[in-house]
Amino acid sequence: MRAAWFETFGSAAAVIKIGELPKPEVSAGEVLVRMKTTGVNPSDVKKRAGSAPNLLDDGLVIPHSDGAGVIEAVGDGVPAQRIGERVWVYQAQFARNFGSAAEYLAINASRAVNLPANASFEQGACLGIPVMTAHRCVFADGPVEGQTLLVTGGAGRVGYYAIQWAKQAGAKVIATASNDDDKTVCEKVGADLVVNHREQNWSETLLSLNDGQKVDRVIDVEFGANLTEVLKLIRVSGAIVTYSSTQVTQPQLPFGQMMYLDLMIRLVIVYAMPEAAKQAAIADIYDKLANDKLQHRIAHVLDFDDMVKAHELIEQGGFGGCVMLRID
């Protein structure tokens, strides 16, 4: 089968190879998916660069956790009726070496989820890390109806979906964006207010626009960089839920100030989500997709041979939306 892989850590151009590898065999409890698309996320490029030093202990790695395709075969214990089913996959390259950047993927049947007929394979490749992360961030601390949520980086891969989850669940949503185009993106998916996080003291602008009322929860894309401003605008007993801190990788916490706010600090990563939270996200994703209630922002769709470029785009950043490659 055609696949992309790496055998050493390093830059995308230096280590990614594209060629032929053996087609995987389907084992008990698994499905064999003929992949149509594979999605690229920051965790994928970080692993390729060496963030998980033991990753290559068992040999080469086919990268990527997300993607979509069609089930071609099933292992023992999996209903034969699933053959021919359109699916999206998640955690394809978590705690294992063989991810979604290949023509075929053998994966636990529970990690291959039905993709409604009205959803494209490109959309399916967005669902694993971005949409599930956003769902967990919004709902991990209970219902949000009637609450005010702040989503920083609302036009980004996760923030874009977090706005939609929160707004459709009955929350008032405030987002941050760095330019007018991204402000418009946030507003189109449901943000009630948008402030520019590149302005100094942007928390003051937010509070002014929100009639001085502080927010109940924050969904934060840059925990370390935003913490000073966030602490000015979150209410007592509020929750800060974060899934990234790229600019400030080792944040310094003003413990006394935070303690007297009685704050909940939650860190989210899809791989470590409780199984019940994953299944709740999957059920809600299916409902929203089937009823055309999720908007998608797909920034780049590339040919499989452009694997290096896809990784480099993620590393360069500067845009919102998903990056994926067509396999078929």
Describe this structure in words.
- By secondary structure, the chain is α/β, with parallel strands linked by helices.
- It has two domains: 2-126 and 296-326, Medium-chain alcohol dehydrogenases, catalytic domain (Quinone Oxidoreductase, Chain A, domain 1); 130-271, Rossmann fold (3-Layer(aba) Sandwich).
- The protein contains eleven helices and 15 strands.
- It has helices spanning 12-15, 42-49, 121-124, 127-139, 157-168, 180-188, 202-209, 223-233, 255-259, 275-290, 307-316, and strands spanning 2-5, 17-20, 30-40, 66-74, 86-89, 104-108, 112-114, 148-151, 172-177, 193-196, 215-220, 234-242, 264-267, 298-303, 322-326.
- Strands 3, 4, 5, 6, 7, 14 and 15 form a seven-stranded mixed beta sheet that branches.
- Helix 4 (127-139) crosses helix 5 (157-168), helix 4 crosses helix 10 (275-290) and helix 7 (202-209) crosses helix 8 (223-233).
- It is globular.
- The chain starts with a strand and ends with a strand.
- The mean pLDDT is 97.
Keywords for this structure?
single chain, 328 residues, alpha/beta, Quinone Oxidoreductase, Chain A, domain 1, Rossmann fold, 2 domains, 7-stranded mixed sheet, 6-stranded parallel sheet, 26% strand, globular
**Shape field:** globular
Find the count of extended strands (DSSP E, 2+ residues): 15
* Low-confidence runs of at least 5 consecutive residues: none
**What number of domains?**
2
For this structure, what is the CATH homologous superfamily of the largest domain?
Answer: Medium-chain alcohol dehydrogenases, catalytic domain
- Count of runs of 4 or more consecutive helical residues: 11
Helix content: 25-40%
